[in-house]
Design brief:
about 45% helix, seven-stranded parallel β-sheet, Rossmann fold, 13 strands, globular, single chain, alpha/beta
Length: about 400
């Protein structure tokens, strides 16, 4: 089968949940002829060797910069600004040429942001890989603001995103989501559509517990630090949660790790005990040196890749219910849940002062990842799914 994958980002290096999800899909397609159209930031290097091994053809375009006119349209247009960012004439022409000249059987869009590229090709079996339900993330921002005007503005933005996303979901023959929670929401806004759950995963051979070295007093938060839900989480952690923890444990440190932190995040490193590392090649050394992983996330959808990474390495996790939404976690068995700064403080105190409880949560997290979120199982599930798609294409072709 000939499959065209359209992605709003490069799938490699695998430094975020979205990239890992796309690489998992590409690996599952190893028995097919794969064509890739992707976008990149201007400074990013194209991983030629990796793409050459995964794809028959690949075409990478610089992600267009938004013009002042496009930004102004955001206030009157029905198309969300994030979707406008991927309007690229040459990329659209390339997609059309590949579909027409290469006999594409199946077209996969990695996120709703590039869904419009699939719209003209209704004769092709189309799949939408939903990394996040963006309108749910937009709704989350409503709770984060107090001014009535801003609440109204975010409600309008969320409703516009919901309408746009609903239209995109309806267009595709099959949707892939991260969790049962997202599948329920998908079916609610696009009734009758086929949806399969492909959870985010971890390479459990690469991410595994190691013999502890010198005891540490470090809390770690990892995430793409330009991404709005992570910006909010990092600020809340540094502003309201970590100072309470330092009252109990004055030697505790906080490390914020992730790509492209904005100035408001890098400034947090001026606080006592706080460090901001920015982008790193490999997060595993940072996880090994940590005592606790925190995910104080208050908005967004999908599942948090870094929670799975931390669990796989035997690190106890404290998260909000939103932060671990979509994961099959159980409070007190494989994770600690907290919703307020005081609750985070209490959970840290429990983990630090009770070594047996700390080990219990760490073992439970690792077991959960092995049973539910291994990379190998997801690749096998996707490969089987594409065999079904191929059979359907042949039947109707």
């Amino acid at each position: 089968m000939r499959v065209l994958v359209i992605s709003p980002f490069l799938p490699y290096p695998e430094k975020s949940g979205s990239r890992i999800r796309t690489m998992t899909l590409l690996r599952a397609l190893s028995g097919h002829n794969v064509f890739l159209v992707a976008f990149k930031e201007n400074a990013e290097a194209v991983p030629e060797d990796v793409l050459r091994n995964l794809c028959r053809q690949y075409h990478v375009f610089p992600r267009p910069l938004l013009t002042p006119f496009q930004s102004a349209l955001n206030y009157v247009s029905l198309k969300p600004l994030m979707a406008r960012r991927f309007e690229h004439r040459e990329a659209r022409q390339t997609v059309r040429r590949i579909v027409q000249n290469e006999g594409i059987d199946c077209l996969v869009c990695e996120a709703v942001l590039v869904a419009e590229y699939a719209r003209p090709f209704q004769e092709v079996f189309r799949i939408l890989n939903v990394h996040n339900l963006e309108f749910m993330r937009a709704r989350g921002r409503i709770r984060m603001v107090r001014r009535p005007f801003k609440k109204l503005y975010y409600r309008l933005i969320a409703e516009r995103m919901r309408r746009y996303e609903r239209r995109a979901l309806i267009d595709f023959e099959l949707g892939l989501v991260c969790s049962e929670a997202d599948r329920s929401i998908y079916r609610e806004i696009a009734p009758g559509k086929r949806v399969a759950v492909i959870p985010n995963t971890v390479d459990t051979d690469a991410f595994r517990p190691e013999v502890a070295g010198e005891a540490t007093r470090k809390i770690i938060f990892i995430g793409t630090l330009w991404y709005e839900p992570n910006v909010d989480a990092a600020r809340w952690l540094a502003d309201d949660i970590f100072p309470l923890i330092r009252l109990d444990f004055p030697d505790m440190e906080l490390s914020l790790v992730g790509d492209a932190p904005p100035q408001e995040i890098t400034n947090l490193a001026l606080r006592p005990g706080v460090s901001v590392t920015g982008s790193v090649e490999d997060i595993r050394p940072y996880l090994r040196r940590a005592l606790i992983f925190m995910a104080p996330v208050r908005t967004g959808s999908g599942t948090r890749q870094k929670i799975l990474d931390a669990m796989a390495m035997g690190l106890p996790v404290i998260s909000t219910s939103v932060g671990c939404e979509g994961l099959e976690v159980v409070e007190g068995k494989n994770i600690c849940l907290a919703e307020t700064p005081q609750e985070f403080r209490e959970k840290v105190r429990n983990l630090v002062q009770d070594q047996e409880f700390q080990a219990h949560i760490a073992r439970g997290g690792r077991k959960l990842v092995e049973e539910k979120y291994s990379r190998r199982a997801a690749i096998e599930k996707l490969a089987a799914l594409f065999r079904e798609v191929e059979a359907e294409v042949r039947k109707h072709g």
